[in-house]
Amino acid sequence: MAPTIFGYSALPFIMLLCFVPAIVVHEVAHGFVAWKLGDPTAKDRGRLSLNPIRHIDPFGTVILPIALAIYGGPVFGYAKPVPYNPTYFKDIRKGELLTGMAGPASNLIMSIIGALITNVLLLVGTFSAEVTMWIFYGGYYFVFINLVLMFFNLLPIPPLDGSSIIAIFLSDSALRKYYNVQRYALPILLLLLFVIPWASSSLFGVQFNPIGIYISATAGNLTELFFSPILGG
């Protein structure tokens, strides 16, 4: 039985509460690594702060995750991308890769820490049924949302972090063209996230959700594995 607030399910609230630190740390990690590689852009613009207000994107950080929470889907979204200038990097391709992977790596680290703390608390501690529910669902969704953000951002589609892997294999001229193409890649994401599931459901009566299948197979299964000590799996 899920915890409630004023008679309503607290799960959307819990998911949104877990989403904010996950996305903020993700973005700060990008800027921090870029700064360590010689790029002061994010630091100069105040984007190495953990203050969520500095990272909020009205649609990606507020509207999209709320809509997904209400819809019942996995909560994910995005913050304002942390700015960086790859020309500061001594090795542009290496810098792109390290900066890009910093965000997903931070989500993986937070998911592992969250799972460890939750498992220890529930295996060792003695709590009331209500407190136990809050600890379990809070820890579970914190881990799940971080893993969703990690695997979602690892997709090799601009502007997601996984696209930084592509830069390693491009020539200098191709890399410049790739930077120009990145700005037009968002419609591809929207197509995968919303248009294909809606069209397949409307036309064929069966929803085909490629992103949902991918997230379930990766973030979903790994979350279950992380919580197997208390779930008995």
Would you summarize the structure shown here?
This protein has ten helices and two strands. The chain is mainly α.
Structure write-up:
Strand 1 (4-5) and strand 2 form a beta hairpin. The protein has a two-stranded antiparallel ribbon with strand order 1-2. The longest helix is centred in the middle third of the chain and has 33 residues, at 92-124. 67% of the residues lie in helices and 2% in strands. The model has no long low-confidence stretch (mean pLDDT 86). The two termini are 19 Å apart. By secondary structure, the chain is mainly alpha-helical.
Average pLDDT taken over every residue:
86
Shape: globular
Biggest pleated sheet: 2 strands, antiparallel
Low-confidence stretches: none
Give the class from helix and strand content and strand pairing. Answer: mainly alpha
How many helices? The count is 10
Number of strands: 2
Ends distance: 19 Å
DSSP strand (E) fraction? Answer: under 5%
Rg from Cα: 19 Å
Succession of helices and strands: EEHHHHHHHHHH
Fraction of residues in helices?
55-70%
Strand order of the largest sheet: 1-2
